[in-house]
Automatic annotation (TrEMBL):
Positions with biased composition (Basic and acidic residues): 10-28, 40-61
InterPro entries: DUF4169
Residue span of region Disordered: 1-61
Protein name per Swiss-Prot or TrEMBL: DUF4169 family protein
Length: 61
């Protein structure tokens, strides 16, 4: 016979795991220094401009 499972406990354990995963994401996104955020923004902007410069079709309108 199968074991009896408490669904409330399962639900609460699942919510705790989801909350912990979200906390990890928030620490990664919001737990950085201003210099780190600025460097990432500059790196993304540089990559975007480099990609745009290598486009074959400049006008797609």
């Amino acid at each position: 016979m199968a074991d009896i499972v408490n669904l409330n406990r399962f639900r609460k354990d699942k919510e705790r795991a989801e909350k912990a995963a979200k906390a990890v994401e928030n620490r990664a996104a919001h737990g950085r220094t201003k210099a780190s955020k600025t460097a990432d923004t500059a790196r993304e902007k540089k990559a975007k401009t480099k990609l745009d410069q290598h486009r074959l079709d400049k006008d797609e309108t």
